[in-house]
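re: ur question from earlier - yeah i can do the single chain one, its not a big deal. heres the input i used so u can compare w yours
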Amino acid sequence: MRKAILFISLFTYISAVAQTETPDSISYQQLNEVVVKGEMPQIRGEDGIMVVDLPGIVKDKPVTNILEALGYLPGVTNNNGMIGLTGASNVTIILNGEQTNMPLQNLYQLLYNTPTYRLKNVEIMYSAPAKYHVNGAVINVILKTPKPLDGLQGQVRAGYNQAHYGSYGGGFAASYAIKDWTFDLNYGLSRSKSWNCEETWSNHLYNDQRTMIEDDMRRISENWNNTIFASAAWKTLKLTYNGQIISGSKSWSLSSGTLGNYTNAYNMLSPIGYHNIALRYATPFDMTVGGDYTVYSENRSQSLFKGTDFLLSSENRQEINRWHIYIDQQHQLGKWQLNYGMEYQHSKDHSSQYYRISDIPDFDDILNENVASFYAGTQRSFDCGLSFNLSAKGEYYHNKYQHNWNFIPQLGATYYENPRNIFQLNFNTRRIYPSYWELHGGTSHINDYSTVIGNPNLQPYIQYDTQFNYILKQKYMATLYFQYGDKTTVQLPYQSSDALNLIYQTINMNYERVVGLNLYAPFGVGYIWNATITTNLMNRRAKADHFHDISFDNSKWIFYGKLSNSLKFSHNSPVSISLDLSYISPSLQGMANMSGIWELDAGVKWQFGKKRCCELDLKADDIFNKWSPTMTINHAGQDYRMKVHDMTRNLKLTFIWRFNGFKPKNDNQIDTSRFGTGK
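and the output i got, formated as tokens:
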């Protein structure tokens, strides 16, 4: 468009000169070179949604996949691979506007295996409309749709990661389209081995006497991870399969201290399997129908030894079958858009726990869960610069422990007089459900002193979030936010008053409230230096009248800051360098206080080969290994401290080869948040 306007302007100017000058005077005319410089807007606002040019933001960063790239979104944090959105209590990642229904671990693995060249843009919705079938904040990753003219394109990736132990893996991603068909395939295989260490000091008050119990625990785990995502689409009919098989999975915890030396061995008796198949069809009259089926299975054993003496063993099993169907309808009524729909989900969780040489009771239980909902929403844009989306959903939840009705409203609004000043207001509520395993009340022993106990009385809780965003010049952003979790949950160590026993159990609090201000600002010097600074100042308060047999009311001001830098030697330099610094001041978790942490990351990206089809990335994360906190509890007779020594320092080397070779003959013409038997 700018080129067209420039051409018209030049043509008009030359025509005017030709009409006013004599033939001799225009026989020799030379125009100076015209250079038009423009900057792609990083952030655009529409209908309460932020559209972010993430490919442009990360083009010089040493990132090779979408999961790493998401950490450079405004307001988004990537904490050791866990994605969070500042101002939102939780965030769901969807692909091309469709919920994946994957456990979080599977979704992250898929994003890790998906190359950044597939990115088109990313939408951030602090309050997702109900038509997405997701409550709360959403990051919508929009991928480029394969076209027949593109031919077969993809990439092969191989990488090595050195932390305390070495891990390695590779992946293959490809897309292809012919006539009305499109195909996507994504496969990843990795061999992982991890290590972390926890030093604990528990000054336990029991029978009016203090007993100091010290423990130094090292945890080691390893596994093979196979992840596959495949999709085939014909016009508007799409079939998708995603799955994960984790084999050779085993872990150990080795502890030594006041109570002696303990070995806790965990082994998967069979591979962990997750399989999901989904079908979706969009009709010509704006109706979408779809459904999916999920099966998950896990069989894990635990053996606990004190020295060479066998203490106990257990076997945990879980098999989940889940069915989900939905139907959505959309109408365009003049300038108003009306949408409504319904969905139903049924899950059957068959879990069991059997103990050997223990007085802990076994269980073999089937938990059926049903969730049904109906929603209605509307969307409208006005000439004055105001646009909004509004929806409300009624939800019914039922299992053998509880059943309830939920009303879930949502609002997202945008206002701007011009693109330089954009205002957004968002509000949403959502109900958060506990994991399946916790509801069975199973027990796992860490040693003779520490146990992890489930909680059949655990209640879902309601989360309220609201945000006010101001976007300046389509690149700077300020977010004022408020979060309130009614009966939110927390898992913390508790020194029992009835026995010399440390208990880990998830319990409902009264509430947790957070209010804060987040600022995001990119800056730099031409192509040489590009930087982004993010600051977040918040006040967090957690209150519980009944945490076991004590109460607490804890609050603290917390600061988070991050400075990201990337440098290039020339405009077309194949080499770019990054340097990132992050800091979190002392914070809290329930009644526990967490120490401040910081990290320094650095990386180099080198593109080479024909049309730069090859890429080599070297990245050092947490160079000084300081991104691990110390937790302290000193309240109501509880006296406990844990120093975490996670090996967050690691060195990653990744090689990528991109290809785009085969062309079709006719050029005219794709949540373990609640799964698992233990953490």
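The chain has a mean pLDDT of 86. not sure if urs matches, ping me
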